[in-house]
Design brief:
By secondary structure, the chain is an alpha/beta fold. It is built from 32 helices and 23 strands. It starts with 9 loop residues before the first strand and ends in a 5-residue tail after the last strand.
């Protein structure tokens, strides 16, 4: 667009949008004028345009005074406060410069940074040179508050994802454009707010004009008009811009939609108490008085029912199917690396757990096929064996999936359990929330996604399917709520017993944590609504009695075997650092979108035990939801549950961050009690995931109710537009809290090959009945590749050592792996140090003793780091060289006594 006809061009136009800048405008104008006058040969002719965006202070007077003393200063007034975009559009279209500089009235970027932008613009031959605070060479002299800075980074990342990829900082207020191109872009612009920067840069990109980020100096200025939520408003403006371009019915100049469904007034907004204040015990439309089960608050519809004006069961079923498909796709996305190469892919953060779980699936299938005891085996830890019931073999899945394991191998079973189990867990939480908690299906889906895909869940997704596959937990909770209704106590109690039995064979510790979380919630809810608690207590206790009557006979023998059978133990040693750090709740996990592995590693036991890491934005959002909806009993109970679980997860000793102060934590009361003594206390924080998911679902459902009310009122006016804008900002806040913890695909590595000596069955002539293959080093929790040898070759041999939970010492304390022996320790030390120790007659005698204990038939050394040192050590221990056979070094041993 050309400049106004008949008006001479200038070399440079400087456009400054100003709203209530009375105190800062004159120093800014003086600084710019002085800078341009200091090098007139460089900058040539210039003009300075101040656009007053409807200021209510003395901004207009200050600008007019400056213009009276300097004819190159011009003042443009907009007649009202329409926003930064409107002001910039007016200023640029009024400009005459061959180059146009946009700068803020606070000069957060000093005017002398213009030199950098001008050099870049000339080098590019036109286009746009924009200041960037995110450039590695940028210099931030005065930083914003941490919250503002983080929200700014999140906003910019969202903008890049949604609208403008490749530009790290779209919102810096210091930009230099080619004049003609700038006027063309602003003439076609439609946004009036902060989104104008993105709209203009998109215009340049689509026109093929260069856009280059230039590092600048920048200092935060007090009194800045930019607020953290303005990044959310930018995204909303871009959404509205896209909608405006797709169809009619929008007033693009005002940036608002004249459609039904956005009507209403701010004064018509209902009180925040207008949500379902109780859990829906019935799962159907409430009919009783307020404060009783099934009550529905005014202006809302009970969970599990259809709101007026919405479609019926068919639509809900289609919605349920869509949600299930989305959860399944999300699960496949997370495990795409594993599915891409089932033969060689190994979850990179699994440690030895993938080998262990594949072995569990394979040994269970073997026991079922040969009708052997599924609760015990000597294939590991020969000759003592492994108590499988005291380990997490997930008989509830490994037994029914036996045909899959036998037909396709344990790796396929492993991948299916992880992928389908995660999706099923999300779908189960969705079902519970939609049935008992909220009306909106999308609100239930959002809460369920957080409950199932929360950072602690994704940490366990690397290695612990027993903590990932939790689809029975929502079913058990729902059945307990049915008992509270007091309708079919016997039937519901019997079903609860069967469900609990099945969960025991999926994972006992997750069931224990679920019971803890349910008790915390029940106590909090009873404190809030004692009348309802008293009414529910009697049928609940009766139903639990029926549940125990069913459950105990079914699990009596397996539990007796677990706690008193061969290789049983009494507790598991986890060390003194098993609780969460308070800082872990505020940080992101290593596999979250905004996560940092180094930070997460410092705050967790390992990458499969990052049991907090919800991130401070989500914690802040949950706190805000609690304040907003505090009058609802269910909200108060959920908030207490999450807070209490988080506190318990800190362990018996709580170290205050950044200090040497150590406090006694409430977990100390439970730490040495039966059952709890084997719990890794940091895992208690996993209770927070469904609690936070439920709070999120309630908030999203409430926002959906507000939208429905706006449609129902069918009113118009600025107040309704503001109400709608605030609601959309709330959606943006929710998105901003969830985006940082969005899980990323789980990385994989290539697993080592099984030596041909094992894979091709060459070992069989070397191993007689009741003899073992001794891999070097002897398998332990840190190196359990030999379990893969077994599961990949049909379990044709036993091994000493292994990766399992078993007893140690006279007290039978639980440890990971077999009790150490001198020879296994020696070989492990050589494996990790690469140093060959002095081997004397005593060491050789000890090796013979340990090999006899293991009933060793053959010793196998596969290729691995430090295998040369291991070979030399074995040669000295066994009194001779090994034989190279099937890709491994082999020492054939004489028959054991």
């Amino acid at each position: 667009m050309a400049h106004p006809s008949g008006v001479a061009c200038v070399d440079l136009s400087v456009v400054i949008p100003a709203y209530n800048e009375e105190g800062r405008l004159r120093p800014t104008l003086d600084a710019i004028r002085a800078y341009l006058l200091a090098d007139q040969d460089r900058w040539g002719t210039w003009e300075l345009i101040v656009v007053d965006d409807g200021s209510t202070d003395g901004t207009a007077a200050v600008a007019a005074e400056a213009a009276a003393g300097e004819p190159r200063v011009r003042v443009v007034t907009g007649g009202g406060n329409y926003g930064k975009g409107h002001a910039l559009r007016q200023g640029v279209l009024a400009s005459r410069g061959r180059r146009v500089l946009l700068t803020d009235a606070d000069l957060a970027t000093p005017i002398d940074e213009l030199d950098r932008l001008d050099k870049q613009l000339r080098a590019d031959g036109g286009g746009a040179a924009i200041g960037s605070r995110a450039h590695p060479d940028a210099r931030i002299e005065v930083r914003q508050l941490a919250l503002r800075e983080w929200l700014g980074r999140c906003g910019n990342q969202l903008i890049r994802l949604v609208a403008l990829d490749g530009i790290a900082d779209t919102q810096c207020g210091f930009k230099l454009f080619d004049g003609e191109r700038a006027r063309a872009a602003f003439a076609g612009s439609r946004l009036d707010g902060w989104g104008i920067d993105v709209e203009i840069l998109r215009f340049f990109r689509r026109s093929g004009w260069p856009v280059t980020e230039v590092p600048v100096r920048w200092a935060h200025q007090r009194g800045s008009k930019v607020r953290p939520l303005d990044y959310g408003r930018v995204l909303l403006e871009l959404v509205r811009l896209r909608a405006a371009r797709r169809g009619p019915g929008l007033d693009s100049s005002a940036g608002t939609a004249d459609t039904a469904g956005t009507a209403g007034t701010a004064d018509a907004a209902p009180d925040t108490a207008d949500i379902t204040g109780t859990i829906d015990f019935t799962g159907t439309t409430g009919t009783t008085a307020p404060g009783t089960p099934g009550t529905t608050a005014p202006g809302t519809t009970a969970p599990g029912t259809t709101a007026p004006g919405t479609t019926g069961p068919g639509r809900r079923r289609r919605m349920d199917l869509l949600v299930g498909v989305l959860f399944l796709l999300a699960s496949f996305f997370l495990y795409k690396g594993l599915w891409a190469d089932l033969d060689r892919a190994y979850l990179a953060d699994a440690g030895s757990d993938q080998n262990q779980w594949e072995w569990f699936f394979r040994v269970t299938a073997d026991n079922v096929t040969h009708l052997r005891n599924p609760l015990f085996t000597t294939l590991q830890n020969f000759p003592d064996g492994v108590n499988l019931m005291a380990n997490t073999v997930m008989l509830g899945l490994s037994v029914p999936l036996t045909p899959i394991t036998l037909a396709f191998g344990p790796t396929v079973t492993w991948a299916l359990v992880l992928t389908l189990g995660l999706a099923a867990t999300a779908l189960a939480w969705y079902w519970l929330f939609a049935r008992r908690l909220v009306r909106g299906r999308w609100a239930a889906a959002l809460g369920a996604a957080l409950a199932a895909f929360a950072p602690p869940m994704m940490s366990h997704a690397n290695a612990h399917p027993n903590f990932l596959v939790l689809f029975m937990i929502p079913v058990i909770i729902d059945r307990a709520l049915r008992l509270c209704e007091g309708r079919r106590v016997v039937r519901d109690g019997l079903l609860l017993g069967l469900f609990a039995t099945y969960q025991i064979f999926l994972g006992e510790e997750p069931l224990l944590l679920a019971v803890m979380g349910t008790l915390l919630f029940a106590l909090a809810y009873a404190a809030v609504d004692r009348e309802r608690a008293r009414a529910a207590l009697r049928p609940l206790l009766r139903g639990l009695g029926w549940a125990l009557l069913v459950c105990l006979p079914l699990v009596a023998v397996p539990l007796y075997w677990q706690f008193f059978g061969p290789q049983s133990y009494h507790s598991v040693l986890h060390g003194d650092n098993a609780g969460n750090s308070p800082l872990a709740f505020l940080q992101y996990s290593g596999r979250s979108l905004f996560g940092d592995e180094a930070t997460a590693d410092r705050l967790a036991m390992n990458r499969t035990e990052q049991n907090a890491f919800y991130g401070w934005p989500l914690i802040s959002l949950a706190f805000g939801i609690g304040l907003w909806l505090w009058r609802a009993a269910v909200v108060r109970a959920l908030a207490f549950t999450a807070a209490a679980a988080a506190l318990l997860s800190l362990g018996p000793k709580i170290r205050i961050p950044l200090t040497d102060v150590v406090l006694t934590g409430p977990w100390r009361i439970l730490a040495h009690q039966p059952l709890f003594e084997s719990v890794i206390e940091s895992r208690v924080a996993m209770i927070c995931a469904p609690a936070l998911g439920a709070l999120l679902a309630l908030a999203a459902d409430r926002l959906g109710d507000l939208r429905a009310e706006e449609r129902k009122l069918r009113l118009g006016g600025p107040a309704v537009a503001e109400r709608r804008r605030l609601r959309l900002v709330a959606y943006a806040v929710v998105a901003g809290a969830l985006l940082p913890i969005v899980p990323t695909p789980l990385p994989v590595r290539e697993r080592p090959d099984v030596p041909e000596f094992i894979a091709d069955g060459m070992y069989r002539p070397y191993v007689e009945e009741s003899e073992t293959v001794v891999p070097v080093p002897v398998p332990d929790p840190g190196n359990a590749e030999a379990l893969h040898w077994q599961s990949a070759s049909g379990l044709g041999f036993s091994v000493p050592g292994g990766y399992f939970n078993g007893p140690w010492g006279e007290e039978r304390r639980g440890i990971y792996g077999a009790p150490a022996r001198y020879t296994s320790n020696l070989l492990r030390d050589v494996r990790y140090s690469g140093q060959v120790p002095v081997i004397d007659a005593k060491w050789r005698a000890q090796a013979r003793f340990d090999l006899d204990f293991w009933k060793a038939g053959v010793v196998v050394l596969a290729p691995q780091p430090n295998d040369a040192a291991l070979y030399e050590t074995l040669e000295k221990l066994l009194g001779g060289p090994g034989k190279r056979l099937g890709g491994a070094w082999v020492w054939d041993l004489p028959p054991t006594r």
